[in-house]
Design goal:
single chain, mainly alpha, Fumarase C, Chain B, domain 1, Fumarase C, Chain A, domain 2, 2 domains, three-stranded antiparallel beta sheet, two-stranded parallel ribbon, 20 helices, Histidine ammonia-lyase
């Protein structure tokens, strides 16, 4: 992961997922590549020349969408561009998270810097200045159909660049920031509002940047959560007296699925040298094989990894794209196209929601095994301190089950839906923005379910005393014990669950495991 304050250069080279996260989440400053600024000015000269042409050119001297055949005279075109942005800034609902808005602004800036959109140099400089000043346009939850770009979200950002609408001002460390009128915020930061010229309204709103920004953030977060899932599974195998034999490399090689091999290797490393595992490896052990939720963890976690790999490939291709309509080709033509359609991104956003739901479902099943005396290999019912008086972790499993049920609903794909718009000109849309919004909720839920498993497995391992867990799992238990007490009488549980959730979602559980086991794949 990039350091927070590493400067990110935006230009001809495609951005990486890590760079998107660095700017969106950690306020890394952006610089504009000089050669790319030259390309921006060259493409603007092409648009200026077409603006004087008596032949109509879409988005330059015509209306938009279903009004593409309406010719607009030269003295009305600045109004045309401003009106486009104002009318399209039509979002509704709660505010979208700051990191999402910053991600979509950065990605739109990246496309503008390709020199394929025809915007003014001042426009790209303003977008960079807004990011560096910590000025974040207020974007609403609803408004994008994921086709013709994330129109409403991007229009809210363009509106702020024009010095209109509302923004939040402040760095990520300041929390949500303070609400201000865009004109006041720009003036305070010494940023001159953009006066849009021909084509610029379209160039600022016609992209997949919102869904791609959320995909980039999700790729980063899910990668860490899948490694954490391996850690949690290993803790459960250990504390439930499961066997590590099924994770052997030669068995995994019989089915050469890449993600499965990585997950199995992680679990092996987490269980290496565990006294608890060693305690029941002798001939007296009658266990033939474990339940699927233990034995098949690499297969499920691995499939999720491979799905994540495909999503990463799609994201990398999209990060290398110049999405606009119309677009300036390399030989100087201005052509209409359909590259704004969000289907490639929408599909993988839905795929990842399916993977997240399944990984969480398996995690919850491991949690449940700890609580059932018929299946927990000698532990107390519900891991209670005084059976009958105490309920132990009974309701923590209810919480996990409720989240898993929600994740299954969120796994229903958004990308199979389409509602025609713009007087049937835009008669098929991707719903990629909706797919991205629900994936963010899915990943939050996955982190919570894994946290409950980690907390449960930690208590189960403590109850195996005097047997000791292995060093890697012991390091995780130690981190958990810094925020949540060990076995004992019933107590107010919600704060402990939330504290362990924070450990998981911040990456501290993974860091504890890797501090002993080394980097997990």
């Amino acid at each position: 992961m990039l350091l927070t304050k590493t400067r990110i250069t935006v230009g001809a080279r495609p951005l990486t997922v890590d760079e998107v996260v660095a700017v969106a989440r950690h306020d890394a400053p952006v610089d504009l590549e000089r050669e790319s600024l030259d390309a921006v000015e060259a493409s603007r000269a092409i648009v200026d020349a077409l603006a004087d042409d008596t032949e109509p050119h879409y988005g330059i001297s015509t209306g938009f969408g279903a009004l593409a055949t309406t010719y607009i005279p030269a003295d009305r075109r600045a109004q045309l561009q401003a009106s486009l942005v104002r009318s399209h800034a039509a979002g509704s609902g709660p505010e979208v998270e700051r990191e999402v808005v910053r991600a979509l602004m950065l990605l739109r800036l990246s496309t503008l810097m390709t020199g394929r959109t025809g915007v003014q140099r001042a426009t790209v400089e303003t977008y960079a200045a807004l990011l560096n000043a910590g000025i974040t346009p207020i974007v609403r939850e609803y408004g994008s159909l994921g086709c013709s770009g994330d129109l409403a979200p991007l229009a809210h950002c363009a509106l702020a660049a024009m010095g209109e609408g509302q923004v939040r001002v402040g760095a990520a460390s300041d929390g949500a920031g303070t609400v201000a009128d865009a004109a006041d915020a720009l003036a305070a930061a010494g940023i001159r509002p953009v006066v849009l010229a021909e084509k610029e309204g379209l160039a600022l709103i016609n992209g997949t940047d919102g869904m791609l920004g959320m995909l980039s953030l999700a790729i980063h977060d899910l990668g860490a959560l899948l490694r954490t899932a391996d850690v949690a599974a290993a803790m459960s195998v250990e504390a439930l007296l499961g066997t590590d034999a099924v994770f052997a490399d030669d068995l995994q090689r019989l089915r050469p699925q890449h993600g499965q091999a990585l997950a199995a290797a992680n679990i092996r490393r987490m269980l290496a040298g565990s006294p608890i595992v060693a305690s029941h490896k002798g001939p007296e052990c009658t266990r033939v094989q474990d339940a699927y939720s233990l034995r098949c963890a690499p297969q499920v976690h691995g499939a999720a990894r491979d799905t994540l790999g495909h999503a990463t490939l799609v994201a990398e291709r999209e990060l290398a794209s110049a999405v606009d309509n119309p677009v300036l080709t390399l030989d100087g033509r201005v052509e209409s196209n359909g590259n704004f359609h969000g289907a490639p991104v929408a599909y993988v956003l839905d795929f990842l929601a399916i993977a997240a739901a399944d990984v969480a479902s398996m995690s919850e099943r491991r949690t449940d095994r700890f609580l059932d005396p018929a299946r927990n290999q000698g532990l107390t019912p519900f891991l209670a301190h005084e059976v009958g008086v105490d309920s132990g972790l009974m309701i923590a499993q209810y919480t996990a089950a409720g989240i898993v049920s929600e994740l299954k609903r969120l796994a229903a794909p958004a990308s199979v839906d389409s509602i025609p718009s713009s007087a049937m000109q835009e008669d098929h849309v991707s719903m990629g923005w909706a797919a991205a919004r629900k994936l963010r909720r899915s990943l939050d839920g996955l982190g919570r379910v894994l946290a409950i498993e980690v907390m449960t497995a930690a208590r189960g391992a403590d109850l195996r005393a005097p047997l000791k867990p292995g060093a890697p799992t012991g390091a995780v238990i130690g981190a958990v014990r810094e925020v949540a007490e060990g076995p004992g009488a019933d107590r107010y549980l919600s704060p402990e669950i939330e504290a362990v959730v924070a450990l998981v979602q911040s990456g501290r559980v993974l860091e504890a495991a890797e501090s002993v086991a080394g980097p997990l794949a």
